[in-house]
Design a protein that fits this description.
The longest helix has 68 residues. It contains ten helices and nine strands. Strands 2, 5, 7, 8 and 9 form a five-stranded antiparallel β-sheet that branches. A two-stranded parallel ribbon has the order 1-6. The chain is elongated and about 140 Å long. By secondary structure, the chain is an alpha+beta fold.
Length: 453
């Protein structure tokens, strides 16, 4: 069963990362990606980011339209029809039974003078809606950056674990060769050779498993980047900074004071509160009178469909003689609207309170995340120190056991146990190292420091 799993994993590895047709237009031009390139690519191509950018564009249009609402409008209208029955004929000075048709063009414009400050408040509301949408976009980008960084570090860890496994396997292969020579010389029993070969087979399996883990982690990152065909996809391994020998004492409340001023989710929630406050002002404005000025021009022409006495006047002459230009003002005073405005005001006040609660929730969530990140960073730092000491201890123990094994003072079982313990300590050290790097990057992120490797 294990052999079948290994074979399937090898086939998947070859299929995903080994096949590279020259004609494939979707092939990646550069095989290796840096962390910065991964993040920038995701910002440009992630569909969630693109959808949120559409929302930003909608808010921009809303703001533009609310500003344009200050301008007067202009409307043209053309109406016409047929009349059946009695028609007044000026020349005859009487009504006659005759069918006629008419055309009436008009042009009108309305200028808002005072609308209960609804236009100004709508502009302000749209401005804060736009700011909130923009910060929501930044929040999505931040989440993507953290996801990509975590997966990027996972790939680096898997590469180092693979390197450790390969080196251990090479060491065991040398021991197999040395023990085989000693068996041939009659210096050691054949059982020792079988034990060493068994250990080599186990370590060969570990190498294969680590290769599979690396392949899967690369595929996971490629999927985060929405790369359809991750052909030969790989990352650039950066020079990792020196590990700090002391944990940076940045208390959670100090980090929170910085984060609450910079985190986009907090800014977005604050802008939403302000937006709902302007929405409340717009709703209250409906209680005030409104004043507008209107002006326009209209005219009319008509003619008999059956005109035996030739009484129809010239069409253009009728439009000119019946032209009417008007200007006026309209004042609307709300008196009683079935208390609908009062209900709208109450609902707007509820939305303001809800937005404030949402802001408090975001702040509570942020402080909890920072507290958790701080505890995780401290725990990973302590784990790293312990793993560092363990590696040094098991390293010396393995060296001593190896020396004794080489002179026949220790059997292969004890040698394999010491070697396995040393390998496990190395793996634990690498895992704690990159976990600590990730946790410190998260703390840097809350401190407003860009994520870089």
């Amino acid at each position: 069963m294990n052999k079948m799993k290994i074979l399937i994993s090898i086939i998947i590895t070859f299929t995903l990362f080994g096949y590279c047709p020259a004609q494939d237009s979707l092939a990646i031009n550069s095989n290796t990606w840096s962390l910065q390139r991964c993040i920038e690519h995701s910002f440009e191509n992630n569909l969630t980011v693109k959808r949120q950018m559409l929302n930003v564009d909608v808010q921009k249009n809303e703001l533009k339209q609310n500003k344009l609402n200050r301008l007067p409008d202009l409307n043209a209208r053309l109406s016409g029809g047929y009349n059946f029955g009695l028609t007044w004929i000026q020349q005859e000075g009487q009504n006659i039974d005759a069918n006629n048709s008419y055309v009436s063009p008009s042009l009108s414009s309305n200028i808002p003078i005072y609308q209960g400050l609804a236009i100004n408040n709508s502009i302000k509301k749209s401005e804060y809606d736009l700011l909130s949408a923009t910060e929501t976009t930044n929040k999505i980008k931040n989440d993507i950056s953290l996801q990509i960084t975590a997966q990027f570090l996972q790939i680096i860890l898997n590469k180092e674990l693979l390197n450790v496994a390969e080196k251990q396997y090479e060491t065991t292969e040398l021991q197999v060769e040395r023990t085989n020579n000693l068996v041939k010389a009659g210096s050691v029993a054949k059982g020792n050779l079988l034990e060493i070969k068994s250990q080599a087979a186990k370590e060969a399996l570990v190498v294969t498993q680590q290769k599979n883990e690396l392949t899967i982690s690369l595929l996971t990152l490629a999927q985060l980047l929405d790369i359809e065909r991750p052909i030969n996809f790989d990352i650039t391994t950066p020079d990792m900074p020196e590990m700090a020998t002391e944990f940076a004492e940045q208390l959670p409340n100090i980090i929170y004071d910085r984060a609450v001023e910079n985190m986009p989710e907090i800014k977005s929630a604050e802008y939403s509160v302000t937006s709902t406050e302007y929405d409340l002002k717009i709703t209250k404005g409906a209680l005030q009178p409104t004043l507008g000025v209107g002006m326009g021009m209209d005219s009319r022409a008509s003619w008999l469909l059956d005109d035996p006495n030739n009484v129809n006047r010239d069409f253009l002459d009728q439009l000119e003689s019946s032209r009417n230009i008007y200007i006026g003002a309209q004042l609307n005073i709300p008196i009683f609207g079935r208390l609908q405005t009062r209900t709208n005001i109450s609902n707007a006040e509820i939305r303001v309170m809800d937005a404030k609660y949402q802001l408090q929730i975001q702040k509570l969530t942020l402080i909890k995340e920072i507290q958790q990140a701080y505890v995780d960073a401290l725990a990973s730092y302590n784990k790293y120190l312990s793993s560092l000491e363990a590696v040094e201890s098991f390293k010396e123990s393995f060296k001593y056991t190896e020396q004794r094994f080489n002179v026949g003072m220790v059997n292969s079982v004890d040698y394999n146990v010491a070697k396995t313990d040393y390998t496990r300590a190395q793996s634990n050290l690498l895992q704690s190292k990159y976990e600590y790097v990730l946790r410190t990057k998260i703390l840097d992120f809350y401190n407003g420091i860009p994520i870089e490797l």
